[in-house]
Design a protein that fits this description.
This protein is of the alpha/beta class and 324 residues long. It is 42% helix and 19% strand. It has helices spanning 16-30, 43-49, 55-62, 83-90, 137-151, 168-182, 192-201, 213-227, 264-276, 280-295, 309-322; strands at residues 6-12, 35-38, 66-71, 95-102, 105-112, 122-124, 129-131, 157-161, 187-191, 208-211, 234-238, 243-247. Strands 2-1-3-12-11-4-5-10-8-9 form a ten-stranded mixed β-sheet, sandwiched between helices. It has a two-stranded antiparallel sheet with strand order 6-7. The longest helix is centred in the C-terminal third of the chain and has 16 residues, at 280-295. The chain starts with 5 loop residues before the first strand and ends with a helix.
Length: 324
């Protein structure tokens, strides 16, 4: 990969800058070569200036190949515009891909990222509020195609829905079944409440799950708990031309600045970014170093350990250096 690739680096709020710093250290050690465009975007900027992200910032992001993202705080202010929702819609990042590896488990949740109950079509009143749940054939087809791409060569695709209650999910289920049949993939479907139960009691039955926006958001946090911690988990928000890579944890303001945030999710997000940029061997080297560091006891408090952020980062770097 040449250094002509441009990556927008958005550390964000809370622990975001701390874990992004760790991810960049590991990427440097792996030999990643790209131009970094640092952008001050997030709640901290909103508090200072009244604007979390400007149109100029969005234009700058669009000039980059992809984004490495930390975490963003969302204040309880009705006038605040979500940065992530703006980026997802502005860059058409329709697929949220969240792999879960740990405790002998290896599965992926593929979440539709631009529709559903996160459509942004809302009416807020004193006595009644409404949110429009949007499910389109186009949105369902392309997330089903992405899930089938990931499921090819694996065991099974599971379509997660609630079509027995939500009529809008019938379209999603029908389209996903049709795409899976055309792709000749082994496919099942499961109601979201049953999927939530099975993630706890029988998680190894899952391989690739595809679902709508809200369900994917909730199930992926549950899955993080199953494998040990939100701090372990990475994600990719992928569109036709651009992609954004971020740990799935939030900004965790209660531990920001204490040096105890788990950097693994951000490091793994960096690995996913290198995979997307055409460096699969580098991505695998980083993942192997992370797994070895964890196996060697590099664990932050969220995993029951005593290590600091820098301790875990250095453990991963040592494993990188020890690879042949």
């Amino acid at each position: 990969m040449s250094g002509s690739k441009r990556v927008a680096v958005i550390p964000g709020d809370g622990i975001g800058p701390e874990v992004v710093r760790s991810a960049l250290e590991v990427l440097d050690a792996a030999g990643a070569d790209f131009e970094r465009i640092f952008l001050d975007i997030g709640c901290g900027r909103w508090q200072r200036t009244g604007q979390a992200m400007s149109d100029e910032d969005l234009a700058a992001v669009k000039e980059c190949d992809c984004i490495l993202f930390g975490a963003i705080s969302t204040p309880p202010d009705p006038n605040y515009r979500s940065v992530l929702l703006r980026l997802r819609k502005g860059l058409d990042l329709y697929a949220n891909i969240r792999p879960f590896r740990g405790k002998g488990l290896d599965f992926i949740i593929v979440r539709e990222n631009t529709e559903g109950l996160y459509s942004g079509l809302e009416e807020v009143g004193v006595e009644e509020s409404r949110t429009l749940r949007v499910v389109t054939r186009r949105g369902s087809e392309r997330i089903a195609e992405k899930a089938c791409d990931l499921a090819t060569g694996r065991r099974r695709l599971t379509i997660v829905h609630k079509s027995n209650v939500l009529r809008s999910d019938r379209l999603f289920l029908e389209v996903c079944r049709s795409v899976a049949a055309r792709r000749a993939l082994d496919c099942e479907d499961m109601l979201v409440d049953a999927a939530a139960y099975n993630l706890v009691v029988n998680p190894d039955r899952f391989d690739v799950l595809v679902t709508t926006n809200l369900f994917g958001d909730i199930l992926s946090d549950e899955a993080a708990g199953v494998i040990g911690s939100l701090g372990l988990c990475a994600s990719a928000n992928v569109g036709p031309a651009k992609a954004l890579f971020e740990p799935i944890h939030g900004s965790a303001p209660d531990i920001a600045g204490k040096g105890i945030a788990n950097p693994v999710g951000a490091i793994r997000s960096g690995a996913m970014m290198m995979q997307w940029l055409g460096e699969p061997e580098m991505a695998e080297r980083i993942e192997k170093a992370v797994e070895a560091a964890l196996a060697g006891g590099a664990r932050t408090p969220d995993l029951g350990g005593q290590c600091r952020t820098e301790d875990v980062t250095q453990a991963v770097l040592r494993e990188m250096g020890g690879q042949n």
